[in-house]
Amino acid sequence: MTQRLVIAVDGPAAAGKGTLARSLAEALGLPYLDTGLLYRATGRRMIDAGHDPATAPAEEFAAGVGMEDLRRTDLRVPEVDRAASLVAAQPAVRRMLVDVQRRFAGAHGAVLDGRDIGTVIFPDAQVKLYITASARTRAERRWEQMATDLNAPDRAAQIAQVEREIAARDAADSARATAPLRPAEDAVHIETDHLDAAAVLAEALRIVALRTR
Ligand code: CDP
Ligand code: CDP
């Protein structure tokens, strides 16, 4: 039997983790889990119930997250970006979500992207990738993903606003006591400022081949 292959993809906001993890999973025939959706769905459920994710305990909302919550189309909006990061700092929420992530890899393996996959969820993952780019590049990418008008006259101001928001979220994610955003010691870093998604995938596949031979 071949050994199960777990690939951890971590890094700051909008670095291209999801794009890479999804295409890696497809190329390797593995299931893919976007773990950020677990925290986003928790934050979403709290907001919908009228609770403030900055102050109220979120554990019961994390416990109630199901597969149908992860398919919601209202998880990638600024208020949920902030709510996800706030609930993700609560240790009880993180504890609640460990098992579902570990079980996802099952007997055959998986690709998971997030912040703590290589450090906490799968410290023994065979392949750990840490995806980065400058805050400006990441803000431009996220803005292009979300923009309704790519020729908006206030384009520069909108990108600057996205950059402030992702910088604030990265700072909070890095500073929290439980499972902070940081590269695992044995992670391979891929700096993507000057790489397109196809080039990042090619580099990741090269690393996977080296680590699994
Ligand atoms: O999952 P994460 O927030 O890290 O980023 P993403 O949603 O996968 O990627 C953000 C945007 O950057 C997407 O529109 C990608 O197409 C784009 N992008 C990328 O993922 N990788 C590159 N090397 C260049 C652009
Ligand atoms: O796509 P983007 O990088 O903007 O965010 P995401 O991966 O969907 O994660 C949203 C938030 O959830 C992050 O800012 C983190 O606070 C939290 N998160 C986490 O703490 N641990 C993970 N494994 C994944 C996400």
Automatic annotation (TrEMBL):
Cellular compartment(s): Cytoplasm
GO annotation, cellular component aspect: cytoplasm
GO biological process: pyrimidine nucleotide metabolic process
Enzyme class of the recorded protein, top EC level: transferase
Annotated GO MF terms: ATP binding; CMP kinase activity; dCMP kinase activity
Reaction catalysed by this enzyme: CMP + ATP = CDP + ADP; dCMP + ATP = dCDP + ADP
SUPFAM superfamilies assigned: P-loop containing nucleoside triphosphate hydrolases
Keyword RNA-binding (UniProt): no
Organism encoding this protein: Komagataeibacter sucrofermentans
Protein name: Cytidylate kinase
Location of the Cytidylate kinase domain: 7-208
Pfam families found in the cross-reference section: Cytidylate_kin
EC number: 2.7.4.25
UniProt keyword annotations, A-Z: ATP-binding, Cytoplasm, Kinase, Nucleotide-binding, Transferase
Residues that, per the record, bind ATP: 11-19
Family membership noted in the UniProt record: Belongs to the cytidylate kinase family. Type 1 subfamily.
CDD domains: CMPK
